[in-house]
Design a protein that fits this description.
Order of helices and strands: HHHHEHHEEEEEE
Strand order of the largest sheet: 2-3-4-6-5
CATH architecture: Beta Barrel
Largest sheet: 5 strands, mixed, barrel
Strand content: 15-25%
Protein name: DUF1980 domain-containing protein
Number of strands: 7
Length: about 230
Amino acid sequence: MVAILILFAPITWAAFKTPDRFSAYAVMNKGVYNQNYGSTARADEFTLRGNEAKPNRATPQPVPMPDTPLPAPEKFNDATEVVKADAAKPKEAQSYGSFTLEDLKQQVPQNSKGEFVLEVPEIYYTGGDIEVQKVITGQPIETTAQILPEKVNNADGHRVRIFRMLVQCCAADARPYSVPVDFGKKAPDFKEMTWVKISGTMSYEKEGDQTVPVINATHVEETTAPENTMIY
């Protein structure tokens, strides 16, 4: 009983004070800045080529473990250390056959402004598909995500990084899927981890051995978190 009473106070404090979300440093240490846009792990779930293998966006689905899991990210004590780290060797973008604008319209919903409404992992995986890139380049898109400062290829301060956490089987192994957002001028200031809705057009830049999807922002606003903050 004495032991229980001794433990009661710290356990109760931890239960009420420990946040039920990832911190900015936790997301950074999970590899938010070290992305492999040519990866095919789970690509069949987020490809823009068809709905056959894609889960319903609104309903979490059982998730099979990928054949090739994402590499364990390095650990950092400070965000500035990220730029010194070597990312996992990326795969180059591949051609997976014909893809047209009509295909895109059939697979992706559009909002009232005609913008294609995409999840961040869907944008992420376009970096590995040459034919999809050709179609979606210049197209207007909208996405909702959390925001962090950009620590990679951002000497002019025009970029931010947006991400969503993707769950493999449980929250403990959730990994951030992220893409840069370029404003063409000084990026607006948002508090780290804020949820934002971003509108813009798609472009792609060759960085090292991989092709990076970049959203050229036309509008960004703070928004509420979605019902499911993690993607399953």
